[in-house]
Amino acid sequence: MSTHQQRHPQTLTAFARDTLQGLSGIPKKLSSKYFYDEQGDKLFQQIMRMPEYYLTDCELEIFENRKEAILQAIGRRHFQLLELGAGDGMKTKVLLRHFLERGVNFQYQPIDISRNVLLELEESLRSELPDLQVKSLQGDYFKVLHELRGNKAQPKVVLFLGANIGNYTLEEALAFLRSIATELNPGDLLLIGFDLKKDPETILSAYNDPAGITAAFNLNLLHRMNRELGANFDLQGFKHWETYNPLTGEAKSYIVSLKGQYVFIRALNRSFYFDAWEAIDVELSRKYSIPELEHLAEQAGFAVRQHFFDKNNYFVDSLWMVK
Predict the structure, then answer these.
(1) 3-class SS at 300?
(2) How confident is the model at residue 11 (pLDDT cuts 50, 70, 90)?
């Protein structure tokens, strides 16, 4: 319990508000979306270059080897190409370049909540793909999709890549995908990435690398809270811990308190107590089997058109059509 007068939630930033809600719960929880400050972005770039982190290479391999098959499966020469959470666009550029070379008439519309991300992406696309038509859209995914829904003249192809769907629980994933289907028109397409169930050792190594980069990435969240929220987390008093359940396909990341300790967060004017060995739930990365993802598609209002795999069957980009 706090010995301080708590700040009113309406006066807090979203980060502070989410922290208050997460650390007040049982079990304690923090959102992985706050991993990505400047230092977090740098650490995640390092993670993507680790030999153990197979996800990026697998999806890149799929796009490089199956780009023509993906275009044929889309089956259209004229469409809007929307991407939810475009990031740096490294993998997407493989498809964009191929579509341009094949004379496809399309406009690329990356959607992201971060204006900075979109500006950096636009700059790199102008330099690397000067012939590409780009129209960036800043805002909430569903709000932007809703605004575009009235345009039925051009069919839409939506990209949701990088196994981002795995950061949602099954119930959240279903709600998310149903919302996408609702904001699209029948016949519109979704190309979505899934990390597949595989050797548990392979999965654990991707999130618990021996170099400790993933641990630094997760613990950087406490650094960020110290800097932005005026917290006094002692990082030596916490450790990163990863688990994988091969039955559910859930890889889960935790930050574990090594001792009984209080942490004061100035932005909340409140102290929180952490028991020795108490865990903070910070990230879910769910892995799917093909029957599971096909069932998810069906429940969400999509028909599966085609799967595209890497050579090891570690990853799949699956093309779905709105029913």
Answers:
(1) helix
(2) confident
